[in-house]
Write a structure and sequence with these properties.
Length: 290
């Protein structure tokens, strides 16, 4: 409680604890002695002195120990029997921790948004019915749809644009994520807004409940380049195997021809009346009876 000149007139124990002063100390002080931001509170004081109330007014005060606290102020003017304002009465709530928590939460959310916006992968949050409630902005670069278009479409965007050969696998894995807690980890083809197809790797490790609804958070990546590289490597491997097989057949045929030539040589040598000797570097390999 204060008089018209802003001098303290009284305080309960909660007020004394809030500011850290004894009753005697506080009753020898005025509002300017504890105001941390006097220019901010001056308009509110003038409003009170004019007979108006202030509701949920946020400002800062200096404690005796030097700590600055943030309070929520609800005050009303005190008038005499003639209706003239002679002072004011205030109820203060310390919201310092709440403010610190809110600031930390804001900074955390900003860091999270920055991370989500800048990583190449797409992050998403979807409920058990395939309704997307959050998806990072870079989805537009990959799929051609803005997050807002996806939110409005409900479950229609993703399932309807997944390749017919992959949709059954995706839906089965998605259901098992929510029903059995099995990790959702699938690769599938999906059609862009412009009709082009690309390969995606989609994964989520767990579900959670919020306000009675089951959700999952996940990461979605474009793996088209990797798939093309794999296809090129597989094709090269198949071509190499084919060439090895063809070469093996060639060698087998050559070996057969050599065997036939050797047989023919023996027949000719055995039927000859002259001596025939086959040698290599002085070593006799074959000779007829002559």
């Amino acid at each position: 409680m204060f008089d018209k000149k802003k001098n303290f007139l009284d305080s309960n124990q909660a007020g004394l604890d809030l500011l850290g002063y004894s009753r005697e100390e506080l009753l020898n002080m005025s509002i300017p002695d504890v105001d941390a931001d006097p220019r901010v509170v001056l308009p509110a004081h003038e409003q009170l002195l004019e007979g108006e109330r202030i509701i949920n007014y946020e400002h800062q005060l200096n404690r005796k120990d030097g700590k600055v606290i943030t309070v929520l102020n609800n005050s009303r003017p005190i008038a005499d029997t003639n209706g003239h304002v002679i002072g004011m009465q205030s109820t203060l709530i310390d919201i310092t921790e709440r403010k610190l928590f809110a600031e930390a939460l804001r900074e955390s959310e900003e860091k999270y948004r920055s991370l989500v916006t800048n990583i190449p992968e797409i992050t998403w949050t979807t409920d058990y019915e395939f309704n997307t409630i959050f998806i990072s902005p870079n989805i537009q670069k990959e799929l051609g749809y803005t997050p807002e278009e996806i939110y409005k479409s409900g479950e229609s965007v993703f399932p309807m644009r997944i390749h017919p050969e992959n949709i059954e696998t995706v839906e089965k894995a998605f259901k098992e994520l929510f029903k059995k807690g099995t990790m959702f980890d699938v690769e599938y083809r999906i059609k862009r807004k412009n009709g082009e197809w690309f390969w995606a790797h989609d994964r989520s490790i767990a579900t959670y409940e919020r306000d009675g609804v089951m959700y999952a958070d996940g990461i979605f990546s474009n793996i088209t380049d990797r798939k093309r590289a794999e296809e090129t490597l597989l094709k090269a491997h198949d071509e190499l195997e084919q060439r090895v097989e063809e070469r093996t057949v060639e060698l087998l045929k050559t070996n057969e021809r050599l065997k036939e030539s050797e047989g023919l040589f023996r027949k000719l040598a055995e039927g000859s009346f002259e001596a025939i000797v086959l040698h290599e570097e002085g070593v006799i390999l074959e000779a007829n009876d002559q």
